[in-house]
Predict the 3D structure of the following.
Amino acid sequence: MPRSILILVCLLFATSASAAGSYAPNGLKDVYFGEALYHAFQGNWFQAVARLDTELGQYRGVDEPALDTLYHHVGHAEFAVGDFELAYRMHHRAGRAISAVIEGNVEEPVRNEAVYRLARLYFQKDQPENALHALERIRGTVPASIRDDLAFLRGQILMANGRFAEAAPVFKELRSAKGLEGFAGYNLGIALLKEGKEQNGRESLDRTGQILSDSRSTLAIKDKSNLVLGYKLLDENAGENAKLVLDRVRLSGPFSNRALLGSGWADASQGLFERALVPWSILARREVTDPAVQEALLAVPYAYGKLSVHGRAALLYGEALESFGREVDRLGASIESVREGKFLQALAREELKQDSDWVVKLRNLPETPETYYLLELMASHDFQESLKNYLDLNELRKKLAAWEGDLDAFEDVIERRRAYYQPLLPEIDLAFRQLDSRIRLRLEQRDLIEKRLHAMLTAPRPDYLATAGERVVSEQIARLEQALAANGAAAPEVEERVARLRGVLVWNISTQYDRRLTDAYKDLRDLNQEVDRLKKQYAAFVRTRQAATQSYEGYGDAIRRQRTLIASAQEKETVLMARQGNLLETMAVNELTKRRERLEQFQITARFAIADSYDRAAKAQNQKGAAQ
Amino acid sequence: MSKITKLIVLGITAFWLILPAYAQEASKEQVKGLDEQVQEIKTDVLSIAAELNQLEEKLLYPSDTQIAIFVSMAEGEKFRLDAVTIELDGKSVAHHLYMFKELEALQKGGVQRIYVGNVRTGEHALRVTVIGKTEGGSDFQKVESFTVTKDIEPRLVGVVLAGTGIGSKTVTLKEW
C-alpha cells in the first residue's frame, strides 16, 4: 500500500524527472554539451546546469560563434539548460531561459515546445492565469511528441482558471491518447461535474472506473475515479450504486482503505449492517495508522450495535479505545521525536536517497516513529517541495564545505610550487638571457645572409660565394699585386703569373657561381629548419618559464574572493536550512497533532459508545430476564 | 451516536479525498518565500562552482599540458559496460566501474569525462581496456592501444566504445 501511495504522488504532481526531457543531438559536436547531458541523464542537475552554463557562457563570449563546436547545438543547449534548471527547481532561471528561447530566432516547433514548457512551469508554480497567457502564444506546428501533453496541460490550465466548459472538450478528445488513458476521462468527469453537467460527469467517471489497463498509474486513476464517484453517490444516499462503484476499487491500491470504508457505509446506508461488517472487518485488520482503518475500528462495533450484538460492540469499542490510546501515545512520542530533530536527520540519510522507495523505507527506521503517520503528508506537494529544498540545501552545504577544503589544498599546492621555483628561477633566467643574446645574434646573421642571397638573384656577386680558402688565396694575390705595384718594374713573367693566378681564381668562382648559389640556397633551407626548431624550443621554454611563474603567482585574489563568496553562501545556507527544516518540522508536528486530536475525539466517541453499548446490553439482558 | 459517527467518518473521508486539503499551518506564502530564497542561493553556489572550476583548471591543468579523456558509446549500442581502464604512457590513470544509471546515461548519448591530467607536448601511448557483457550475455574484455599527440592546446581525447560485433572495433578514438 505505501508503494501505491508513492505512485499516486507521481500521478498527482509533475516531478522533476518529467522536466528532464532532454536528449542527445544526432552527431554531437560539443563534448562539454555531451558531458552536461551525461550528468542530466543521471539526474545530477547541479553538475548538468553548472557544466552547460559555463559552456554557453564561453560560447556567448567568442568572437566568431560559427567556429565554436557548440554552434551546431546552441538552440538545443539553450533549451536544455532551461530544462535542467527546471529539474533542479530553479524556476525563475528556467523561466528566463525558456523565455529567451521563445524570444529568439527559432523555428516554430521549437518555439511552441518552449511555450509548452513555460506554461507547464507557470501551472506547477500555481500561476494558472500566466500559464493560460503563455499557451495563447502557441502558433502553427506543434511537435508531435508533445501534442497530447500540450492538450492535456491546456485542459488542466483551463480547469485551474475555472473554465470547465472549455476544458471538457479538450479532455474528451484525449480519452484514447496513449499514456493519458484514464487521466483524460477522470479530468473530463471532474470538468463536467464542475460545469454542472452532473449526469455526463458521472458517466465519464463511471467509464474511467471500468477502463482496462496493465499500467499502474492508469489503474490508480481508475481507482480514484471509482472512489470519487462512489462517495458522490454515497453523499446522495444512493447506497446500492455507491457500493457497486466502490467495490470496483482494487483491494491493494492506494485508495483501497477509503473504498472499503465507503463500501461499508454504502451497505450501512441501506440498513445492511451484516454486509457492512465484511469490508469494515477487512479494513480494521490493516495498518492502524491509516485514518480509514482507525475509523473502521469504530465502524465495526457500530455495525454490531446496529445488529443488537451490544456485548460484542462494547468489547470492540473497548479494543478500539485501547488502540487509540496506544496510537495517541505513539503520536505524542512522534511529536517529541520530531521536535528533537530526529525526523530531519532521518530525511537527510544518504542511504535512503539511493532508493526510489525511500519514503517507504523511512517507515522502517526504528528511530523515526513519526513517519508512520506522515506518509500522506510526505506525499503532499508543499511538503515534497520543502523536503527537496531541504535536501538540496544539505547537498549545497556539503559542496561548500568540500570547496573550502579544495581552496586549502590549492593554497598548499601554490606554496609548494613557490618554494620549488623561486630559488631556481633567477639562475635559469640569467642563463637564459645569455643564451637569448647569442640566439639573437645568430638570427641576425641568418637574416643578413638571406638578404644577400636574394639580392644576388638580380645582381650576381660571385665574390660573396668564394670559399674560405679562395678568400685567403685572393688576399695573398692582392698582397702580391700590391707589392708588385709598389716595387715598380718587375719581371713581366712574375706579373703574368700573378695575373694568371688571379684569373684562375676568378674563373673558378665565376664558373661555379650557379652551383654555389644553389648550394647556398640549400644550406639556407637547412639552416631555416634548424632555426625553426630553435624557435620552437625557444617558445616552449618561454611558455614553460611563464607557466612556472603562473603556477604560483596571481591566485591570491581569486582564492580570497572564493573564500568570501563561500563564507557568505554558507552563512545564508545555514539560516535557510534552519528555516526550511523548521518548516518541515512544523508541517510534521501540525499533521501529527491534528491526527492526535482526531484520535482523542475518537476516544471520546468510543467511551460514550462503550457506555451506551453496556447500557443497551444490560437493558437487553434485563428485558430477556423479564421475558423469561 | 450513529449519526455523529457517520458524520465524522464521512467528513474525514471526504477530507482525505482532496489531497491539497493537508492544510499545514505553514502557509503557502512561507513555503513560496523559502523556495525563492533557495533558488537564489542555488544561483550563488552555481556561480561559485563556475569560478572554482576555472580556477582549478588554470591551477591544476593549464592548457599547454592539459589532457582530458572522454568516454562515450557508439550510437545504438546496447552491450553492458562494466568497467573501463585508461593507461597513459604505461601508467594506469583512470579506472571506472559503471553503475546502471551511468551506463544508461552513456547509452542515451551522454559523454563522461573519465580523466583529466597533465602531459608534456609530444606523443603519448594510450591504452584502453573495456570489460563488459555482450548483448548475448557473454563476457568480453578488449584492449586497444593508440598514440595521441599533445600540442600546446588542451588535448581532448574521445574514447568511443562499441559492442563486439563482427568486423567492428570495440574502441575507437574521436577528435573533439
